[in-house]
Amino acid sequence: MTDRFLITGGAGFIGSNYAQRLIKKGAAVTIFDNLSRDGAESNLTWLENETDKKSFEFIKGDVRNFEEIRSAAKGKEVIIHLAAQVAVTTSVENPRHDFEVNAGGTFNVLEAARLNKMQPSIIYASTNKVYGELEDLEIVEEPTRYQFKYLKEGIDESRTLDFHSPYGCSKGAGDQYVRDYARIYDIPTTVFRQSCIYGTRQFGIEDQGWVAWFVIAVLKNHSLKIYGDGKQIRDLLFVDDLLDAYDLTLKIPGTAQGQVFNVGGGPKNSISIWVEFSKVLEELLGREIPVEFRGWRPGDQKVYVSDIKKCQAELGWAPKTDVRKGLSILFKWVSENKGLFV
Questions:
Q1: Are 63 and 229 in contact (CB under 8 A)?
Q2: Quick one: which of 141, 133, 241, 134 has its CA closest to 194?
Q3: Of 18, 124, 146, 167, which residue is the catalytic one?
Q4: pTM of the prediction?
Q5: Which of 36, 81, 88, 218 has the most neighbouring CB atoms within 10 Å?
C-alpha cells in the first residue's frame, strides 16, 4: 500500500487503531490532532512505540483552523475524518464549540479536499444520533431489554433524519455536507453512521464511550451511574470490524462514492446497556457490581440497532467479533493498562 493518508483525530481511539493498521500495511500516514482528548497523547506514544516515529507524520492542529487543515491535506489521497466533539452532554453545555468543531471543522476538511488537486477519497464518521429519538417507533419492553416491535433488523439508511441535540445537529450537518460534496464536486466521499464502537485504546468517560467507561470504572473502583433503567438497547461493534469496513470502502471507491452506510454490530450484537451488559462484565470481574440509577437523559433512545444489510450487500462486510469476545479483549487491555486511567 502506497496511498498517502490524512487521519483527522488520528490520536483518538478509532484513529490510532486505524493509523497502526495502515502503517503496518506500508501506507504513508499523517496524523492531525489537537491532543485535547484524554488519552490522545498516550495513543500517540503507543503508536510511536508500536511502529517507528519515522513511519508516520504528526501534525498538532485543529480542524477549526482552515489553513492548518488545508496545509495538512495537500497531496493526500485519502482523508479519514474522525476529529470531532463527541459528547451529547458537552454539546448541550457549549453548543457553539460543538458546532465549530463538528459542522465547521467538517466543512473545512471538505474545502481542503476540494482545493486539493488529488481529489482525495473521504470517509466521514457520522453517528446514529442523526436519526433522533425514534419516538414514532413502537417499542416493547421485555424482562432484560427494550425492542423495536416491528423493525427486527434495526434502523436502515432510508430512515428520515431528525437531529436532536446540538451534537445531532452538528454531526448531521457534517453528514449532509459530506454527501453533497460527492454530488456537486465529484469527490469520492462515504458517510458511516456509526453505532456504538468500542475496543482497545478507548479512553471512555461517563458522557461518551460508555462501554469502555464501564470497564474502566469497575477496574478502578469508580462509582457507576446508570441513566434510565438500564434496559436501553445498543448494538456494539468492535473497532477492528469498523476498520474492515473502512478498508473495503477504499478498495471500491466507485461503489461507495456518495453513499451512506449504517454500520454497527446489528441485531446479533445488541445488548441492553446494563441489565444484560452487567452480567457479562460481572463474569469477567468475578463479582457483583454496585450501581446507582438516575433519571432518564433527554434524547436518550430506548432502542438503537443498526440495520447493516446495505453495508453487507454493497461492501461485502459483516462483523466478525461478537460482544463477549470483544468485551473480553477490552477488559484484558484495560486490566493491563490501569495506570493509564485516572
A1: no
A2: 241
A3: 167
A4: 0.96
A5: 81
Could you give the CA distance from residue 306 to residue 113 in angstroms, rounded to a whole number?
29
Question: Three cell numbers at 94?
Answer: 457549549
Instruction: State the CATH number of the domain containing residue 316.
Output: 3.40.50.720
The C-alpha atoms of residue 275 and residue 88 are separated, in whole angstroms, by 23
pLDDT in tens, the chain (342 residues): 558 999 999 999 999 999 999 999 999 999 999 999 999 999 999 999 998 777 899 999 999 999 999 999 999 999 999 999 999 889 999 999 999 999 999 999 999 999 998 899 999 999 999 999 899 999 999 999 999 999 999 999 999 999 989 999 999 999 999 999 999 999 999 999 999 999 999 999 988 999 999 999 999 999 999 999 999 999 999 999 999 999 999 998 788 999 999 999 999 999 999 999 999 999 999 999 999 999 998 778 899 999 999 999 999 999 999 999 999 999 999 999 999 998
Range of the domain at 327: 4-340
Number of domains in the chain: 1
Instruction: List b or e across 42-81, with b for residues whose CB sees 16 or more CB atoms inside 10 angstroms.
Output: bbbebbeeebeeebbebbebbbeebebbbebbeebbbbbb
For residues 217 and 291, give the distance between their C-alpha atoms in angstroms, rounded to a whole number: 11
Query: Is 167 labeled as catalytic in the residue annotation?
Result: yes
Q: If DSSP codes are grouped into helix, strand and coil, which group holds residue 268?
A: helix
- 3-class DSSP state for residue 236? strand
Does residue 131 contact residue 155 with C-beta atoms inside 8 Å?
yes
Residue with cell 468500542: 198
What's the rounded Cα separation, in Å, for the pair 332 and 270? 21
Residues paired with 80 in a beta bridge: 7, 123
